[in-house]
């Protein structure tokens, strides 16, 4: 029984160590999505006004 308990403990420690990295990855993805939306909105506004698209 102790071998499985040790394994469970090791897995939970590994998951706890990975948690900040996973959170950081999610934040980076969210930032990238926001930038893409802002960029798309800007380009759409430029097209509406007949200005440059970059």
Describe the SSE topology.
Blueprint: H1 2-49
Could you give a quick summary of the protein structure above?
With 54 residues, the chain is mostly helical. It contains one helix and no strands. The termini are far apart.
Give short descriptive properties of this protein.
54 residues; 1 helix; mainly alpha; rod-shaped; single chain
Kindly state the percentage of residues in helix. Answer: over 70%
Query: What's the overall geometry?
Result: rod-shaped
Average residue pLDDT: 88
- The run of helices and strands is H
Estimate the strand proportion. under 5%
- CA-atom Rg in angstroms: 22 Å
Number of strands: 0
Uncertain spans:
none
Please state the oligomeric state of the protein chains shown. single chain
Largest sheet composition: none
How far apart lie the N and C ends? 64 Å
Q: Helix count?
A: 1
Q: Give the class from helix and strand content and strand pairing.
A: mainly alpha
